[in-house]
Amino acid sequence: MTKPCCDKEDMNKGAWSQQEDQMLTDYIKKHGEGHWRNIPKAAGLLRCGKSCRLRWINYLRPDLKRGNFAEDEEDLIIKLHALLGNRWSLIAGRLPGRTDNEVKNYWNSHLRKKLKSMGIDPKHLRLSHYLARHRIHGFTAGETSSAIKNYQPSPHDQIKSSGIASDQHQVSDAGSCVDDDDSSTILPDLNVDIASDSCLPSGATTEEKKASTSLPSEDAVNEKTKDEQYLTSRQPEQPLSPTLPLFR
DNA sequence: AAGCTAGACAACCGCCTATAA
DNA sequence: CTTATAGGCGGTTGTCTAGCT
């Protein structure tokens, strides 16, 4: 239905050249971000607008922090992923200088394996289902840990985890990117501090704003909304502590 | 030295939502 | 209210590189 954003003919694809990077950077420095569809033409690039946006956000933006993830960043990703699932943009929003693509790649190449090698099934490392369903509020970090330890995924969760979700939209949960190894797993002492304002970027995105609006009926709430409602409905008790060691 | 493999990461694709017309 | 379009997101693929045989 939607027209392709760019005429695929005559468009460059693949890796960006230095010259293209320079042209895009110069243009954005001069005119600012936005109107991505017009940028290629205006900047003289033979690229799709989406491609320009991605290149800028993931690579050229001056405030990007490049290089290895620090241990506290790693911890934070694991915690947030347990809470939010594969909502990379939300997770990246809590990591200054990191992009959703970077976090996603890091998760898929490092953290997933790391958790698996520790005998942890990331599939079951999902707090929000449990918390939302059982309406646990006001727990402390220690209580959180015991809640996780005692958590048995409901049949509903298990169905979703194994990809039989009826939900057509990308209901991403922690298990969706994991091999379907359903061996019993030991849940770690996560020590997750969950505070609404520390789990959402300061500049709330549309998605987050949406999440903070009135509660729809239980049945109408999809997985995504539940997570966000949970996040936004809780009053902060403790700031999220990214330095809290998780598995060390 | 050459070939193979796995890891890392950049980039693309398709879908969804928000919003302007 | 409906439709078209732009922007954004997550999943997936492609490519490059380092390490191993």
UniProtKB/TrEMBL annotation:
Q: What is one GO biological process annotated to this record? A: regulation of primary metabolic process
Report the subcellular localization: Nucleus
Record-linked SUPFAM superfamilies: Homeodomain-like (SSF46689)
Q: Which SMART domains match?
A: SANT
Which molecular function term from Gene Ontology is one that the record holds?
transcription cis-regulatory region binding
Q: Where is the composition biased (Polar residues)?
A: 146-173, 230-241
**Gene3D superfamilies from the xrefs?**
Homeodomain-like
Q: Name one GO cellular component term.
A: nucleus
Disordered: annotated span: 146-182, 197-248
- Lineage, top-rank taxon, reads Eukaryota
| InterPro entries for the chain | Homeodomain-like_sf, Myb_dom, Myb_TF_plants, SANT/Myb
Q: What is this protein called?
A: Uncharacterized protein
Keyword set, alphabetical order: DNA-binding, Nucleus, Repeat, Transcription, Transcription regulation
Tell me the lineage of the source organism.
Eukaryota, Viridiplantae, Streptophyta, Embryophyta, Tracheophyta
- Which intervals hold domain Myb-like? 8-60, 61-111
Q: Does the keyword Signal apply?
A: no
Domain called HTH myb-type: residue spans: 8-60, 61-115
